[in-house]
Amino acid sequence: MDTILLVEDDKNQILLYEQELAIEGYKVVTACNGIEAIEHARNYNPDLIIMDINMPRMDGIESMCRILSEQRNIPIIINTAYSNYQNNFMTWSADAYIIKSSDLKELKDKIKELLIKKKRKGDDKTV
Amino acid sequence: MLPDIIKFRLEDIINNISDVEIAGLALLDHNLNILWANRTLSSVLKLNYDPVGRSCRDVFNCECKDKNNCTTLKVLSSGNKQHSEIQVNTDKDIRKYLQNTTIPIKDEKGSITHLLKITTDITLKEEKIHQYDLLTNLVVLMQGTLQIDRLLHLILTCVTAGTGLGFNRARLFLLDSGRHTVYGKMAVGPSDITEANKIWNEITNKYEKLEDLIKASENNYRYDSPLHMITRLMAYSLDDENEVIVSCIRKKKVIVERNAFNNPNINKNFVNMIGATEFVCVPLIVRDKVLGVICADNIYSKKPITDEMVMLLSTFANHAALAIENAEAYKSLEKKIVQLKEAQERLVRSEKLAVVGNMASYIAHEIRNPLVTIGGFARSIVREVKDNKAIENSAKIIIDEVNRLEKILAIVMDFSRVAKPVKVKSQVNDILDNTISLMEAYFKNLKIDLVKKYDVMMPDIVIDQDQIRQVFLNMLKNAAESMPNGGKLIIETTSEDEYIKINITDTGEGMDEDTVENIFTPFYTRKKEGTGIGLAVSQKIVDDHEGFIKVKSELNLGTTFSIFLPIQNCMC
């Protein structure tokens, strides 16, 4: 079972994502801010991270950069209500940029796609 | 007391001063008959007979007609010296101004025995006063005129008016330093002798004062008069030093040409254009800078151009130059004020947009987050509820509404970040056609008649086609929506000076003044379904293209949106 680290400060959204991702068959670990996300990334070694940007204590962009400096191979999806962060080149190091929507189809499709890609890469290495 | 020697030798004294040239002298008896007169009197009064033995009344031909005002009679009754001024028209119809002083000569008992009348010619002095008054009058008139074309016309009218400087015709040449040329700008005066006579008769009968004449001629200036048109054809390079006008400018001096037809040093082409052999060219100089030249002549009256007239014209020209410079300064000031006002309006608008953009972004984020949760859970309800149609339907309604809100948010977010235009050379008529083709079915449905009036000679301009198409789309959609019961939609393209203009006119419900004022304010809308962003986005796009939009609207008659886009973009 793939583990997804969900970094999100909105409690109701956490409930929604947990429920929806569980249905898709993922194990979900949640972090409420950027600092918690770094710790959880170390402790849980997730297969993929869904990262919000606007959060207390440390924002998603800084958190993402720190995580990537330690674990380069974790795919990260930025999932935010803002579209204008796309202009910030720091966000370009993420594997995908999704503008939050009540329809989670785009997010779910992207997760699937990135996990398959990651597995293929892993398989290539073991071979 | 007068010494006896003078009293008794009056005759000797009179005889001795009889040759004095400065004044006309006449000795009158008690009955006002002239007993004696010197030669100067005859020349001052231009008499062709001997005045001695005639009555004062006949010779002076003036005051005694009205006995109450006759100064000579007053001297007799009062016993005191009297002064008077009279105007005399000589046989050559030259007006003269004379000053008469009448002195009583009394005997030992104090009774008046004779009168001595001293007559001096004060025409020169009177003319100077008249000229001074005239100049003051003209300067006041010029200073009151700041609109440049009106002022130039006023200057030439002053030069030609009989009550002004009295030349027959006047032409104005202006210096264009940028092009290194001097060119004919304007001309005032009759085109031939018949017209001249007609005008002079009309003027003398109709207008007593110069102001009235100027006011009347201002509205009647004929830009198609042969004189004006010929003058407009005249232009000379400043390198052409042999040209009279150029020489007048370069030397900064008045040129009086008495016999141009026979002067080998004058370009015959210029003389033929002017058509007069005697003319005067006066430079318009202000602070050592030449603005142009006034060229005047008396082609019809053939009156010689005297030194006095030249003097008066050049004094007048100095004032005229100052007035022109003032008007030019005022014009450029006015232009600067308009530019400043426009810049200020643009700033306010962009400030408004920036604030709206930030607000939109903040609100979009704040609303989008709860919408994700609401819509997301509504979707999970639809998925989970299998046998309760009512709950499923309700959840579906929630999803629909959330979708609608999310779409609006996407538009608002887009508005807050209209991208910088990517400009390419384009033909606006084609973009319009392309936009219209997208909407044809829509227009047909609303029973809207489309009328296209394209200027086929429209120049290409450099624009972001997608953005401009978006502007046309917004405008056409607005126009169509204002005609729910059908109507006429006229799309017109023209090019005007530095801009191309696209007029989109509808015969719809129109707008009141208040609405027109707010129509470009973001989120201002009168429509049920509208977001109030279409026109604000359109304006921002046109602004980014350094163009502008004008709106004309009348309630129940319709609206015209005029979009102006700069042509010089082509050069980029």
Helix content of chain B: 40-55%
The first-level CATH class name of chain A: Alpha Beta
> In CATH terms, what is the architecture of chain A?
3-Layer(aba) Sandwich
CATH architecture of the largest domain in chain B: 2-Layer Sandwich
CATH superfamily of the largest domain in chain B: GAF domain
Q: Strand content of the residues of chain A, in percent?
A: 15-25%
CATH domain topology of chain A? Rossmann fold
Major sheet summary line of chain A: 5 strands, parallel
Structural class of chain B: alpha+beta
Structural class estimated from helices and strands of chain A? alpha/beta
Let me know the number of strands of chain B: 18
Radius of gyration of chain A: 14 Å
End-to-end separation of chain A in angstroms reads 22 Å
Number of H/I helices of chain B: 18
- The largest sheet of chain B has its strands arranged as 8-7-6-11-10-9
Mean pLDDT of chain A: 88
Cα(first) to Cα(last) distance of chain B is 99 Å
Predict the CATH topology of the largest domain in chain B. Beta-Lactamase
Helices, strands, pairings?
The complex is a heterodimer of chains A (127) and B (572).
Chain A (H helix, E strand, L loop, with lengths): L2 E5 L3 H13 L3 E5 L2 H11 L3 E4 L8 H11 L5 E5 L15 E4 L5 H22 L1
Parallel strand pairs in A: 1-2, 1-3, 3-4, 4-5
Chain B lengths: L3 H5 L1 H8 L6 E5 L5 E4 L1 H6 L11 H5 L10 H8 L3 E8 L5 E12 L5 E10 L1 H21 L4 H13 L8 E8 L4 E8 L4 H14 L3 H10 L6 H7 L2 E3 L6 H8 L3 E3 L10 H7 L4 E8 L2 E9 L9 H78 L4 H27 L8 E3 L1 H18 L2 E6 L7 E3 L1 H17 L5 E10 L2 E8 L6 H6 L15 H11 L3 E7 L3 E9 L6
Parallel strand pairs in B: 13-15
Antiparallel strand pairs in B: 1-2, 1-5, 3-4, 4-5, 6-7, 6-11, 7-8, 9-10, 10-11, 12-14, 15-16, 16-18, 17-18
Helix pairs in contact in B: 6-13, 7-9, 7-13, 13-14, 15-16, 16-18
